[in-house]
Fold this protein.
Amino acid sequence: MITQKELLKKAMRPWSTGGFLREWLANETVFPLEIPFKTPSGRTLTSDFGKIRDWIATLSSHSKSEKGTGYQLEYKTINHNQLGQQRLPHKIVFEDRNDWLDFIGRKTAFRQFDEIAGMTRRQLPDAMQFLSRKPLKALEYAESWHQLIKVCRYFQIRPRPDRYIRQLDIQGVDTKFIENHKGILTELLTLVLEEEDFDDSVTGLSENGFERRYGLRFDESLIRFRLLDSDQPVTDMSVPLSQFVEQPVSTVYITENKVNGLTFPAVTDAMVIFGLGYGIRSLGSVEWLKDKQITYWGDVDTHGFSILSVVRSMFPQTQSLLMDQTTLDEHKHLCVQEAESKRFNGSPDNLTQPESQLLDDLQNNRQGENLRLEQERIGYSYVMQSLR
């Protein structure tokens, strides 16, 4: 015997799966919509006649014949050996859309979807496929759908605008709106823009993904570097990544620690880049670095070797500096412990055999508990000697 709760759950299914809205967009229909249920058996009639009578009364009291809207009840008459003729519910049917929407409480939501669909057909027809694929997601944005359409139309007219989001003048849309809706805008813009009007290789929103994908400006990473043998008045500089032009050197040192970058010894025909950490991945777009001799100096710990592998994946010619067993042996008394929760446990692909062995030793605590030798603990004279 189906309860009102179970009946509502089954009736909701075409809505909660999005099936009804998809079929409505395609001018198809699910009506009349029949809700399956089990009718009581003759044995149940005998043992629970009172419960069945109450169940029938409840079903009837919530039906369209009593409430003026909702489901229709269809009955069939059976002959029972003990109880004689009995009239039992045989079918529960929603004959049309309005009765069904009223019962599941989605009249307002459907009206909103109808408005969204009409607006999209008129103003942004290429986005109709989004409504077909993800009707319920579109409905989540019902209140702001008109603004989403305005943003999409702006990019259709002005693809790759080469401006900051703050500079986009879209009537009725403030820049905070775009910042807060990058996810849904990415899905819509991918559908409505021409292939040449965005960079399909950029996926996700991290690291200014939305801005890079759709040709917007953004607050770029600053690259800080020092020229190590220059007689120019300015040798310590920070520039946006896009303005990091080729420097007149043949050797490039990269070090994570800021102070070590500031105090890096003078080296002929060389420069040092410092302070990037895992942000070092941004250097992968700097083509001219591929023609330089590159040396990376990181901590002798699990993350130091992980970052070294990242650098070498971009620049295979990279050598490491002071990241070897000898350096560790001579400075073990200066080592600290790497926090267990922050250790890197992966297996980088771009390490030499000695580097991989040392990383494996550190990860498995063969030379000490969570051993870590930070760059700045290595004596300055030792660094000078190694460079020589």
